[in-house]
Here is the input.
Amino acid sequence: MYQYSLAYFFNLFIRSVDESPKAAIVPKRLEMLRDYFTFFLFTNVCRSLFEKDKLLFAFSLATALAASSGDLDRAQLRFLMTGALSMDNPHPNPASSWLSDQAWSHLCELDGLAACFSGLRASLSTHTEKWRRWCDAPTPHQTPLPDGFSERLSSFQMLLVVRCAVMDKLVPAIQVETVSLGQGQGP
Here is the structure.
């Protein structure tokens, strides 16, 4: 388990104030300070992390920043972390030959999470072969979703579909999204 003292973070912040680029306009200075401190914090904490933990830290930091600025829906972030809360799914799995019942339950719950996911269950029921090809793609997070869902979903929302349908391909998708959320400051 990693532990960092408040004094450690305080010293990082003070150094960030001293070393960050200066600006005469206060909002611009605050933006520069925030960006510098975020990067400084990330690089200094990553020095002490095991390699296997750097992606998780980067993703946690990027999602926390995006959620606090209102760029990320907290219910969707919660769904990414926990998945479906109920496994009681009244809808029969139309693709049981290649899609697990657990994945189907997650997709059914995702269908009701937000308007952008509406119709996901019906699409999968109607176009099972298109969805199977998407799930079998080597990089589904970079492959267009069937039925125009790619145009409706952000890259973060695409992670939710990947999490539900092809959980084993979630880590590469998170690596791409972390760089996107962190504006290139990923691990």
